[in-house]
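Task: encode each sequence below as structure tokens.

Item 1
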Amino acid sequence: MPEPRENSWREICLVRLSAIGDVAHTVAVVRALQDAFPAAALTWVVGRVESAVARLVPGIAVVPVDKQRPLAELRRLRREWADRRFDALLH
């Protein structure tokens, strides 16, 4: 897979729904993405409880989801993001 050019990714979505410790470790990935792609908008889909940690990272959009209702949340996001496209989805 070729290396993406800095200006090639404008919208990046991260999905990390596991425990709060895993989300805390993912902050380093988010910061690295911000450094590598400063013009990109980052959206982080994360559990409601864990969203408190994600909100501490400046410059990202945090989308909390209810992990106890995965199908309902998937339907909600599909409906809300019907016209939205991401250049990269990272899980």
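Item 2
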Amino acid sequence: MKNKLIIVDQTDQIIGYESKEDCHKGEGILHRAFSIFIFNDCKELLVQRRSFLKPLWPLYWSNSVCSHPCKGEDCEAAAHRRLTEELGISTTLNFLYKFQYQARYDETGSENELCSVFIGKANGVVRNDISEIADWKYINPDDLDREINSNSENFTPWFRMEWARIRKDFKEEINSLLKTKIFNGQ
């Protein structure tokens, strides 16, 4: 990767730049990241199965897009860029929240990220980049909950954390985005 990732402290202050590979070695170096959740008019979430080429969590199911801003790029601009590159989608994104997490993937490395979470709505054709995404599908939120509850090991750790938080704390924002009630008072 030509561009370096943005290394931050726990308050999101930039403290340097490092290669993607170095950011994910060992326990990882705290860096900025983002996750995008794209819904459609059928009240379904677009989820992706990560490419087998991914060194961390290959072939695991995850949210619509997850990636990193590079040096000189803010999270929202990077989110729009990656949404177009990975799925061929362009849409308005709404920021929900930011959180920090660290997750280890065997001896290969770790995610150690300060992650901004965005939601958006799109319909139409998805053109996935096969070097990034092995498969994708739209799924009803209740069906997704059942899949995560019965096979959590098939999903990336950040996706499970983010989805649980969205279900708990951001029902109104999703309902407003879709102009309909997708989440009840569960």
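Check on item 2: The beta strands are 5-8, 14-18, 31-39, 45-50, 61-62, 65-67, 93-105, 109-121, 133-139. The helical segments are 20-23, 75-87, 141-150, 157-169, 171-178.
End of task.
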